[in-house]
Amino acid sequence: MESAVKSRGAMRLKKALDFMGLPPYASESQVRARYRELLRLNHPDKGGSPDEFRRVQSCYKFLLERLGGQEVGSGAEVGRTPGAKGEHHGPAVAPKRDPVGEPQAIRQGEEDSQQVVVSSDLKDLGDEAYGEGEYERAVEYYNAAAAYSRFDNLVNYAELLYARAKAHLAAGNEGKAVSDAKRSMEARPIWGEAYALAGQIQLKLEDWLGARATLEKALQLLRDQRDLLDAVRADLAVACKAIEEKFCVSSLRGHAGEVVQVSFLPESALIPNSLGSRLKAEKIIATASLDGTLRVWSCASGACLHTLRGHSAPISSFQWCPDGSGTLVSASEDSMAKIWQISRESCRLLRTIQGHEAGLTHVAFDKYGSMFSTSSEDGSACIWDLETGLLLHRLEGHSGKLNKGAFHPGGRAFVTASDDTTAKVWDLGGDVEDAGGCIHTLEWGDGQVKDVEYTPDGRFILMATRKAGTVSPFFRLLLFSSVSGRICRWFDGHSATITCLSWNPSQLVAEWATLATSSLDGTLKLWDIRAEPTGSGSYSLESDEAQGRALKPWEKPKLFEDIESMFEGALFCVAYSPDGEYLCAAGLDNHVRIFDSQTLEQVQDCCGHSGWIRSLAWADDGSIVVSASSDGTARIWNVLKP
């Protein structure tokens, strides 16, 4: 009933405006002039039609009453006989437009004052014109409603902007359409239809990244509107496909399980004409999988060169020898490590390394590639000679699983990180203790040590710790002196487990270094690591744009069911580009994002994986980055530098 009355009122308003020959946004002076002109033309004494004369007066009176002017009997007499004393033509139907363009309240008694036009009538006229295919006319009505109306709430304003965006789109004005759609989103942030329309327009403008972000938000907001979900999913698929074609060079398929690590064959400045130097143009990478195999690929061709089989359990870690010779060491949950020799034409297993009683968690080389380490769930680490495969040192003393081991840049010390809440520093050269002896036990608080690194100059040791639980959990970085073993600084800032550390390679000889960290809290943070001043420190930059909401316990991946806190945008890996200008981060939402390392402004966002991303690697020239995913593939992405 109410809608029918509203519709009849809108139709009558349209007819009155059309009869008077007025646009919906006419100014006061235009209305007055047109009214007087029609009175003269249709005056019976001048040959005019009495019926037309009365209709002019009737329309003027209706517009006056309908759109907020003074009514008859309020001091402005409308419809008096022409020529009678006190003739008055009344105030205008529509006000002059405010320079700012914002609707304002009526100011009674002021000449040319702003008046409150009934926006619903003008919008209804615009909707009618849109339905009849008169898109430009519809835009005129919507413009009038936006310029001369006051809206009781932002919902009505958002709906008007949405309608005008559709009209602009239908008229071929995509630029204006996307602007109105975005303003509609801002006015009503939880209205999924506005996001869906904005995403559709962004597709037409070939703004693939913007369209994907907008449509992903639309999917979240339209969960209960099945009639729109299919269309949004289809548009999102188009955006993702376009992004994949723009950025993705190749998708490397062949593994039968999740791909957990990827790494490039390094070039070597120490050995002339190394394999890495000779195959520089090929950009050789290796990938490791939970299927127990490693694969060697050429990024130039996308071809799989070799498949390395021999482990009876998932691969947990591998590393290329830094001398660029093509030697690779793999560590597996089967408690064994294997040494492989890779070339362009062939690959062969050199040795199988055994010495642990439980699965291996990590493998690392020293700076020169003469020895490597294995860390194990049995709480021990072993140092091995690469050429002979002989055990050099067995490092025992931890009471919990080892998560990682790292060599000092000089190669004469080694540090291990353990779930027993400590890190230990070991003397490999016999400088302080007997070779293989523990120099320092690093401990502060009761958090598990999940990661450990030497600073690039070797003066300090950085630990990433995690204390779980609901009472006072913390996720902290600790900085210790590598000489004295004393704590220098501690850094708080993350609200969930720290998953990866990456040093800026452009600062290897600086007195301080910049560290990038990723976390399950969905944030990427930069820290200036230096010894002074002592005490608490904080991060210098943060990016949390893709953080999302905290996941419910049943929404977490099975691997992370025991993790106390995790967000939709949880990050699993971060890596600096070789020149230190960019950062790449990826994780749970399947996106590979590239940031400016100075500002953390996102410069590229790549999608194509159907599973979360476990590892990232940059080519030496920084032209491509490769991601390893739980979907069983690795993808090669072009880095589009300005």
CATH-wise, what's the superfamily of the domain at 2-245?
Answer: Tetratricopeptide repeat domain
Could you say which structural class the secondary elements and strand pairing correspond to?
alpha+beta
The overall average pLDDT, rounded, is 83
Shape: elongated
Query: CATH top level of the domain at 2-245?
Result: Mainly Alpha
Alpha plus pi helix count: 11
Radius of gyration based on Cα positions: 35 Å
Low-confidence stretches: 69-117
Q: Say how many strands there are.
A: 33
Helix proportion range: 25-40%
Sheet with the most strands, sense and barrel status: 5 strands, mixed
Sheet with the most strands: spatial strand order: 18-19-20-21-25
CATH fold type of the domain at 2-245: Serine Threonine Protein Phosphatase 5, Tetratricopeptide repeat
Binned strand content: 25-35%
Task: Name the CATH architecture of the domain at 2-245.
Answer: Alpha Horseshoe
Organism: Chloropicon primus
Domain J: 15-68
Keywords: Coiled coil, Repeat, WD repeat
WD repeats: 285-307, 308-350, 353-394, 395-428, 491-530, 564-605, 606-642
Characterization of this structure:
The protein has 642 residues and is an alpha+beta fold. Among the domains are: 2-245, Serine Threonine Protein Phosphatase 5, Tetratricopeptide repeat, CATH 1.25.40.10; 254-326 and 338-353 and 615-642, no CATH class. Helices cover 25% and strands 30% of the residues. The strands form eight sheets. Strands 18-19-20-21-25 form a five-stranded mixed β-sheet, with no helix packed on it. The chain has a four-stranded antiparallel β-sheet with strand order 1-33-32-31. A four-stranded antiparallel β-sheet has the order 2-3-4-5, with no helix packed on it. The two termini are 60 Å apart. Keywords: Coiled coil, Repeat, WD repeat. This is WD40 repeat domain-containing protein. Residues 85-100 have a biased composition (Basic and acidic residues). Residues 15-68 form the J domain. It comes from Chloropicon primus.
